[in-house]
Every structure is written in structure tokens, then in C-alpha cells.
Amino acid sequence: MAAVTEVRGAKLTVRPTRLRAWLLVAALGCLAGAVLLGVLVGPVRLPAGAVLKEFVNRLPLIGVHSGLSQLDAAILWQIRVPRVVLGGLVGAMLAMAGASYQGVFRNPLADPYLLGVAAGAGLGATLAVAYLPGRAGWPADPLPLTAFAGALVAVAATYVLGRSGIRSRNTATLILAGVAVAAFFTAAQTYAQQQHADTLREVYAWILGGLGTAAWRQVALILPYVAASGLALLLHRRLLDVMSLGDEEADSLGIRATRVRLTVVIIATLGTAAAVAVSGLIGFVGIIVPHTVRLLAGSSYRRILPLSVIFGAAFLILADLIARTALSPAEIPIGVITAFVGAPFFLLVLRRTRRLS
Amino acid sequence: MSIEVADLSVAYDGIPVLRGLSVRVRAGGWLAPIGPNGAGKTTLLRAVAGLVPFSGDVRVADSMVSAISGRRLAQLVAYVPQRPQIPASMTVTDYVLLGRTPYIPYLGTEGRTDLEVLARVLDRLELGSLTRRPLGSLSGGEVQRAVLARALAQEAPVLLLDEPTAALDVGHQQQVLELVDELRLERGLTVISAMHDLTLAGQFAEELLLLDGGRAVATGSARAVLTEATITRHYGASVRILEDRDGGVVVLPTRARRRVQVLAEGTVG
Lengths: 357, 269
Hints:
Chain A is mostly helical and 357 residues long. Chain A is built from 15 helices and two strands. Chain A starts with a strand and ends with a helix. Chain B has helices spanning 41-48, 70-76, 92-97, 112-124, 140-153, 170-187, 198-204, 222-225, 228-235, 259-264; strands spanning 3-12, 15-25, 30-34, 55-60, 63-64, 77-80, 158-162, 190-194, 207-212, 215-220, 239-243, 249-253. With 269 residues, chain B is an alpha/beta fold. In chain B, helix 6 links the parallel strand 7 and strand 8. The model of chain B has no long low-confidence stretch (mean pLDDT 90). Chain A binds chain B through residues 1, 3, 5, 7-8, 10, 12, 14-17, 235-236, 238-239, 241-242, 244-246, 248-249, 251-256, 294, 298-300, 302, 356, and chain B through 46, 49-51, 69-75, 77-79, 81, 84-85, 87-91, 93-94, 97-99, 101-102, 104, 106-110, 112, 115-116, 118-120, 122-123, 128, 131-132, 154.
């Protein structure tokens, strides 16, 4: 919606930055392409036409025969699709969390991985594996909860240690605090892991991450957290723009900046921890995706957040595709792929922000 | 709306910055707090804007600042800090629209009325041709107009400006202050603006409030407050006061050989 207001006989059109339909359609097109590649490519090549018919067949009220063999259909629905869906959920969550952290900390380098969230979640998950041996028999797996608690403690520690940097707008302080916190949590995690050598395998497989064990069960496990967290973050998109004015000016506009920051950090950390609990540690998604979106669509969070969801999903689906096909039949941990792209990207962003400030 | 400050004290980390300050500004008036660095000018503005905890009483019209919500206060008082954060890639439209925040539901987005106010404000401040430009591409004077536009979009009857002319050349200083004065008369705004330039302060404000060490040391017209003796005493500066042709006063800094002596007499409050 653009308002055309008549002022002194002349028409003045004001168009605030919003998510326009063409942007959304273009982004969804990219995602659809990534999804299709993700389900088609693999050791068993599935015919594109038949797969599309399978998808259409799942729509209500439509019955089409796809011609896929029973085995191919099983590969599609039990292996490829859950893996793509899980990758999409994790990627969307990490990208959106990265964008949100960047908004509330006013720091373009904030990322769940660099703020210590991942290391905290790692410690939480390891503690669950090591000290709750009977958890397999529990009605609900406590691992996501302990991962969440670990993540929250880590972010809180990073925030407290990096506080002086937030006030002075020094982007480095917060990141350095995150590095220190991550190192500490990783050390504690390694200690717990070595002390319970019998759990080493389970812990290590989790930490290396990846979507190799993806199944519908895991989708169901994280979907509620990711959906709730994503929705809540999207609702904060305009407030994130207000936060870009700094705490004092945001306060003078009737917003309580510290409260908004705390709320957004808790929501983003909840979603990230859930995602990390099933995918293991995957870095840099929260930097690569929001910054690419910024370059394409400008700096308003009203565009960055929704587009990060879509491009984050597409990005991780493609990264996972590379992870499982590059050295096929072996799998490269997906975090290796994202770091390959992400680390140079990080330096690029660092250079850019140095120049601007 | 009138502003009434009574016995206002503010301390940062236990260090007093304002001590028992009382001052009144009539509705539609313009008060300029002046004083040396660290005198408490900014703190006075921040207290009226509800941004620092204080003891004493601050009333805007009949509302106690400490008793109303931040949102309500933002509808009454618009505050422009000395160095506002300018997100370089944000467009002028988006930036000015942020001024509507006190009227937009917490997790909501703007409505028709907000866009209409936005269009009127952009037009009034002659930003109509710059609406889609990123703030980073504007000149200093244009940025100051955009900041003022954001404050006006709040539609608050009280406007607090901290050193509104600090970063501007002499021509833009005059333009901005003339604009503030026009808006004050048009909309009946009550203005409090902390000022460094004493001559400009005297020319535009109705009343000056000289602060030193967190206390009010002189209040009144430019002619009454801006005297050689007062300025020497509180700023440790040596100046001459000249008469303007229009009856105003000009504060002219002079190079004095007695400067050392003046400082030695102990002017630090």
C-alpha cells in the first residue's frame, strides 16, 4: 500500500519499504528450485516429471498416477523429502535468528554460531547424552530442552561480557566475547564428553551435525519450536527497524529497547537451539543469508526477516545437496560447506562495516 | 503545553548532574538551556523525555512524566539527541515513519492515518523529493531536516532539541532554527533546545536558562542572562557583549590576556 496524499494541491506519494509481491514470488521461485534439486539429485536419480506428479497427487481432491516404482516412492517420501524439509527448517531458522541478533545487537556480524549459541547448545546436548542415560525410555526426549538451556546461558554470558561493545557500537567486542564464551563452553563440553567415553560416538555424531539421519520424526520434533519462534520474530520486524536508532532514541519513541532486545534474543535462541539440536553445529548461515538479502532488498527488517526465512531454507537445502553429493557415496559434514562459503563472506562483511564506520 | 520542572535532581552512578533544578516553560514558549560542557543541559532534556531516573517533579501540561507510560509520553514529547543515530541505508520515508511508533500497536504496522501524517510532514519540511533516498546520501542540512521530520511525525506538542545546530554551517544553523520557530508558531509547540551558540540562543529562544554544575544560575531574557560578568564567571571565557541593530545581543569571543588570571580565580563549578 502506498499513500497518495494531497498536500497543497500537489500529490505526494509515500511508499514505506515493505515486502513487495514480486520479491516474495522471486524468492519462493528460488526455494522451489532448491527443493526440486534436493529431491531429484542423489545416488538414485528420480525422474523430474514423475516426482512432480507425486507432489500433485498429494494435493487434496487430485488423483494422478505418477508412475514411480514403490522403491522410488519410498526413497522420495522417506529419505529425500524429510531431509529437504529438515534442511529447509534449520536453514530458515538459522538465517532468521542471525538477522534478528544483528538487529537487536546492531551488529552486522552477530550470528548464532559466533555468539556462542551453538557451543552452548552443544554443551547442553552433551550433558543430556552423558548424564541422562535412561532418556531413550522417556516420553519426550529432553535433549532439545537441555540444548536450549545451554544456548540461553551462552548467549546471556556473551551479552553480559560484550555489553560495553553494544553501548559504544564497537562491533568487535561482542564477537570477541562470543568467541571467548564459545571456547569456554566447548572446553566444558569436551570434558564432559571425554569423561563419558561410552557416549563419545553419539555426541560426536551430533556435533558434526548434518542431516544424514533426517527423518519425519525430527521434522516433527523441531517444527513447533521453529514455527513459533519464526512467527514471533516476524512480528517483531518493525521493532527491529526502530532498534536501529539506538536504545535511547527507541526509548524516546515509547519502545523499551532493553525489553525488546531480551524478548527477541530469547525467541531467536529458542528456535536456534531446537534447530541445532537436530542438525548439529552449522555455522555462518546467519551471516551469509541476511547479508545477501540486504544487498538484494535493502536494510529494512520488514524485508530482511521474511526473505531470510525463504533464502535460508533454499541455501541450506543446496548446501546439504553439495555435502551429500560432492564426495559421494561419502558425506561431508554440512558445517564444512557453510564454513567454506561463510568464512570469506564474514571477512567481506567485516571489511564493509569497517569502511562504513 | 506548558512544562513545569520542580526540584529536579539526577545522578549518574551516584554522581549528581542536576541538583534541585526548577524551571517553567509556558505553552508555546521556547526555552534554551545554556551553560558550559557538563552543566547538565542534556540531562535536563533527557529527564523531561523520561529517559533517566530522577527525583523531583516534571510535568508536561498536567501529566507527571514519571507516572505515564513511555508510549503516552512519546505522544507528548519528541526528543532529538545531539548526535542521532542515522542508519545510512534507511530511506528518508522509512526513517520519518519511525516517528509514528508511539501510535502504532506494539507488534503492528502503520495504518492510513500514519501515512497521511508522514506525507504532510515530508511535504512541510520539503523532503518530498528525497523520500526514497538513503540517509547516508544526504547532506548535513538535509539529515537535520529528516531528523526534525521524524520528531514532528510524533505529533507531540513538546519538542526537545539537544544542540540542533552542532554539526551545521552558519547558514544551515539559521535555517534550522528559523524552521523550528515557524513550526513552533504554526503548531503551538513548546520548545526546549540546549544550545552552545549563545548569540543564536539569544536570537531565537524566548528565555535562556543558564546552568552551571547542575544548578540554575540565571534565567531570563537574553539581555538579562548574557552579560560579560556572567559568561566570564560560568564559562571561563572572555567575551564582549555587543548590541544588535534589532535590539538583540551578540556574544563576541575575544582573545584576552587576562584569561589565565580568570581561570586562576576558580571558575570550575
